[in-house]
Amino acid sequence: MYEQLMEHISRTVPISKSEFDLLKQFFHPRTLKKKEHLYRQNEVCRHIAFVNKGCLRNYHVDGKGDEQIIYFAIEDWWVADLQSVFQQIPSMFSLQALEDCDLLVSSKSEFEQAFEAVPAFEKFYRLKTQIAYTSSQKSVVEKTETAEERYIKLLKKSPSILQRVPQHYLASYLGIKPQSLSRIRKKLSSARY
Amino acid sequence: MYEQLMEHISRTVPISKSEFDLLKQFFHPRTLKKKEHLYRQNEVCRHIAFVNKGCLRNYHVDGKGDEQIIYFAIEDWWVADLQSVFQQIPSMFSLQALEDCDLLVSSKSEFEQAFEAVPAFEKFYRLKTQIAYTSSQKSVVEKTETAEERYIKLLKKSPSILQRVPQHYLASYLGIKPQSLSRIRKKLSSARY
DNA sequence: CGTCTATTTGAATGTACTCAAAAGCGGTGG
DNA sequence: CCACCGCTTTTGAGTACATTCAAATAGACG
Fold first, then answer.
1. Which of B78, B91, B94, B119 is least buried, going by the fewest C-beta atoms within 10 A?
2. Pick the CATH number of B3-143 from 3.30.420.40, 3.40.605.10, 2.60.120.10, 3.30.390.50
3. Taking CB atoms and an 8 Å limit, are B82 and A125 in contact across chains?
4. What pTM was computed for the model?
5. Dihedral sign, Cα of residue B156, residue B157, residue B158, residue B160
6. Would you call A64 an interface residue with chain B, using a CB distance cutoff of 8 Å?
7. What are residue A90's phi and psi, to 5 degrees?
8. What b-and-e string marks burial along B66-93, b requiring 16 or more CB atoms within 10 Å of the CB?
9. Are B126 and A126 a contacting pair at CB < 8 A?
10. In chain B, where are the structural domains located?
């Protein structure tokens, strides 16, 4: 149940078995059935979760009703709207399971207690947040490329995601309509063979 | 010299005068003349800086030679490529002064010492990084809007930036060409009057 | 099997781009 | 003070990428 999280944290910061045993109490197993939500847009996000198993999408619905997927989360990802959790404000995002999922969830106060109890965990969190921030900036940069280039990049970087996720979700992630993705795929397949 | 930083930090976390006195030693005044760089793409970023005065742009040059501005920084902003600083890897970004600037700069090791010496500062940093991350995600969402909508939003949200920054830089920030921004402005001005 | 959803295809439209050139603006030197 | 230069902004014309609306085909699930 918790080995995966231990393994995950120790890839970033050194953490002893006893420190980790302290940490475990702040995380609780939870399952999500396919299509269930962990949090919803316009509601306060109550949990920070680690993905033991499954696949989810974090998405935003804009004023015109269009969905934009911000990221897909699979095994070993963290999911939450941090701003919503920690500032107790409504979230701009929804998180939905695309497959049945096994999570380890933690509340705001538990997470904060975890920082207190295990300094290595606060350091871990600080480093992770920083990486998340810089990755997010990178994705801003990538948005200037054409959808076709972004799709090719996705093919190379995350082929596993492509196999797990329906195409219209990939389109939403790439910031285009399903029709456009279909056309791009057609163009690429005819170009290659 | 340091009052502004003290003021800035205490807006986020409580910090005593004596804690702040400890912190000061890790930050050094530095000026940048207009057009000078603090760090450059493909080089390791050596400093984290707080802007006491001035205006800068953080930008990326892509494979086609096109510039994309990620953010403008003015008074009370932090500037750095955190991933580059802390992981000692080449930066994807360059930081250039758009006006003569007064900064307070800190190196990687000084910054890390500051975390050790003043726990409130680590907490401050963690919260700030988190906000930066969530803001960056918001900007990903906003990228799906048309350039016109983003320009109008910028007008409302940061009119001060518009007054300080040449138009072609605003275009680069919005992810469009200067010609397109000019056309958008023309359209808006005729629509309004 | 039938229904519901996802994907593909077609045709017309719109937003921003490219290339090109003109007009505006700011600073420098004669 | 004016002339000139370099850089920014504007304008024009044609183009590319992705969109919309619409419909057909394909797949998934009960």
1. B119
2. 2.60.120.10
3. no
4. 0.89
5. positive
6. no
7. -60, 145
8. ebbbbbbbbeebbbbbbbbbbeeeebbb
9. yes
10. 3-143, 145-193
Could you list the pLDDT tens digit for every one of the 193 residues in chain B?
899 999 999 999 999 999 999 999 999 999 999 999 999 999 999 999 999 999 999 999 988 888 999 999 999 999 999 999 999 999 999 999 999 999 999 999 999 999 989 989 988 998 899 999 988 888 888 888 899 999 999 999 999 899 899 999 999 999 999 999 999 999 998 765 5
Q: Nearest chain B residue to A60 by CA: give it.
A: B141
Topology (CATH level 3) of domain A3-142: Jelly Rolls (2.60.120)
Q: Can you give the distance from the CA of residue B55 to the C1' of nucleotide D18 in angstroms?
A: 35
Q: What type of residue is A107?
A: S
Which of A68, A129, A173 should one mutate to test binding to chain B, selecting the residue with the greatest count of B CBs within 10 A? A129
